[in-house]
Amino acid sequence: MTTTRREQVRNEVREKILTAAREILVAEGIDGLSMRKLASRIGYTATAIYFHFADKNAVIQALMDEDCLALVQSFSEATKVEDPVERLRLIGMCYVRFAIGNPNHYWVLAMIPYREFVIDANDPRRSDPSQDSYAFLRQSIEIAIQQGCFRPEYSDVEEIAQMLWATVHGIVSLHLTRGADPWFAWRDLETTANHLVTTVLRGMTTRD
Fold first, then answer.
1. What does the domain layout of the chain look like in residue ranges?
2. What are the UniProt keywords, alphabetically (predicted)?
């Protein structure tokens, strides 16, 4: 087997492991994930799993890295917009579309409680807007503040970021967990989310 073919097979197995891990996390949570269960799910030995990942934490970190990068890349539409407030609105809408279009990815990123030891808070990618979605949001907010787009009482970048994140996460998690519930007369998610994000930004910025 050539080196290129060997690498291709290795990458295919790695993706198979991550896909299975994502499915287990969504269905059973972090406590339901184990290397043995992963091996059983994809028909490999536990030894084969350890060849690719040192432990369960490494699997989860790889999932977080992969899914967070995919989320950042989904913001590409917003990077083309010069107006800072409109850019923030588009980031919110891109976030909603990513979450609804990739529910398992979003579940792993934002719906499963993680213990502190799982995430490496010192990872340099944490502050890199090209790698981390929260850093991307913070950077966009900083630009908006510098251009005088936010009202004076809204000057804390972290607070604004967490308010905007809570806004889109709230509507996304509501639809992921209860969107099929016939008890409610659900309205179109895209339209409702756009109205919500626009309203929140209007209340925080100097725009009418």
1. 1-53, 56-204
2. DNA-binding, Transcription, Transcription regulation
pLDDT band for position 3 (cuts 50, 70, 90):
low
Q: What CATH number should be reported for the domain whose range is 1-53? A: 1.10.10
Phi, psi (degrees; rounded to nearest 5) at 45: -80, 160
pLDDT digits (tens, 9 = 90+) for 73-121: 999 999 999 999 999 999 999 999 999 999 999 998 898 887 654 566 6
Write the DSSP symbol of residue 112.
S
pLDDT on residue 126: 74
Best CATH choice for the domain 56-204 from the list 3.90.550.10, 3.30.70.360, 1.10.357.10, 2.40.50.140: 1.10.357.10
Q: Token digits for 104?
A: 């398992």
DSSP state of 117: G
Rounded Cα–Cα distance for residues 188 and 103 (Å): 17
Backbone conformation region of residue 150, classed left if phi is above 0, alpha if psi is from -120 to 50, else beta:
beta
Containing 195, the helix (H) or strand (E) segment is helix 189-204
Residue 27 structure tokens: 């269905």
Buried b / exposed e over 119-141, threshold 16 CB at 10 Å, is eeeeeeeeeebebbbbbbbbbbb
Q: What does the block give as tokens for 49?
A: 């799993």
